Amino acid sequence: MDANRRHQPPRWRSTLGAALVLFVSAVIGAIGAPAYAAPPANDNRAAADLLTASVTGRSLLDATTEPGELLTCGADSYMNTVWFRYVAPAGGSVTLRVPVAARSLSLYRANGSRARCGSGALTVEVAQGEQILIQIGRLPSALAYNYSLEVSFAGRPTNDNRAAAALLGAVDQSLTASLLGATTESGEPLTCNSDTYDHTVWFRYVAPAAGSVAVRLTTGARAISVYRARRSRLCSFGGITSYGVRAGESLIIQVGRRPTATTNVAGLRVTLTPAPAHDLRATPMDLPGLNGTITGTLAQATTEPGERLTCHGTSMSSTLWFRLVAPARGDAVFVSPVTNRTVTVYRANRSPTCGFSRVSLFGIRAGEPLLVQLGRRSIATGYNFTLRYSFAPDPDQDGDGYSGSSRGGADCDDANPRINPDRADRPGNGIDENCDGGDAVGQTNVGMRLWDFAVKVRNGHKLPPSKQSVVGIKQLTFKNVPPRSKLRLSCRGNGCRDRVQTRAFPRGRRNLVIRRPLRRKDMQRDAFKRVVLEARIIHPTLIGQVSRWVVVRGKATTEIRRSNLCASATGPVRRCP
User: Fold this and answer.
1) What percent of the chain has pLDDT over 70?
2) Are residues 131 and 204 in the same domain?
3) Are 106 and 120 within one domain?
4) Of 41, 215, 224, 523, which has fewest CB within 10 angstroms of its CB?
5) What is the pLDDT of residues 305-327, one digit of tens each?
6) Rounded (5°) CA angle 146-149-153
């Protein structure tokens, strides 16, 4: 045997290997290709199972995906999807939950848009009869294929929309509101400070009195908004205080659930702090004394219908009222040192005066009330206020040009403008009108005597006794005339001795007699019909006495009429006061 034959395998070994290969091929041919299980019945969207209750013990094994099917949620991708279909029995919200880890859940509206996606529990708002498509997928990190799907439905609360807001109205009220089943309305605001919320319910608070209303959330992850007529919406995630709420005013309160919330319960507390008594113009606070400072807050202050709420074109709100009654004639100043405050002062029959820091008023009458309105400008950020006031009495209280004697002036009665050093003093009335230290002494007594001359002959014919008349004034007597006085005697008509004569009373003398002021020969003529004789006592600072006689000659008698009048040194003759 040569060397080549020694290294070749035995023939029986080759025959055995070939036979083994033929045997394996025959077995494989008999068995055929490996067999796979069919996909679930709800493997595609069109064959989604109708979900009427929670399902458990289902498997994603052999589940596939469709062309164009969404297979991502955020940064996660998934596969092996199955589908369910849920029809809402009424309006409300439906919550779907996959309690198995590494599963993805997506919810689609009837129009094909995806409403929510994520893992765990998802809640969407639904209308009655609305259909929701549910997609469940398996994340690549999953180690198993099983899944369960839990479903729960909550109907809408009665105050689910703004028109059906629940009524509140107590001064201090706390409540717990359920957001389960709550939905949102078309056009409803659902953002606050760039954060979103949903599942909203509504309340309407009617203020039982004027003041400020504080609305507070007592649970976290909630949003609150307050709406007032003709005002901007206020929103917060903790609480809101609405200032200047009028009695009977309605506040609409919206409470929503933030995406981070884990429960559907919202705690709410509404508290009213009443406005102060001087919130109304009819009940102002009286300012004590002539000077003072008032401090406080405008937080609870409101405004009244028809109240003036502008100052130099700037609007204001949250007003309080004060009153200062002038104790005397003088000037007043009102100052508000806090910025963005307005001060308006109202006076009877005058236009109001307003300013942003200071208001000054002059010529205020004694007893005149000043109504002060303190308000907050719309651009203000705080509510505190300080009001300083001062009243300075006028040195000349009666406005006659002289300060009162109590303030170093010469006016002995500063409450009466008819008494001052420039006024004439009427003697004997007990009043010192000219402030010279006392009343003028007595009244001037002007005496009078008739001239007892009888007219017995007229035109050469003797008159019978019945027609003879007495005419003329024999003399005038002036007594108790004040020192420094002068007599001015005037006469008008035929029969006057002098038309005007002026005589000064000699020093130390207070009596004067003037004889025969009328001419006898003139009175006997027929031309003598009527003569007016007037005597005026003139004094520089006193009201003088005027006596006027009118002598009228008749057919049988001569009538003498006397009038007592008064006049100052330069003024016209008038009836005595």
Assistant:
1) 77
2) no
3) yes
4) 41
5) 899 999 999 999 899 999 999 99
6) 175
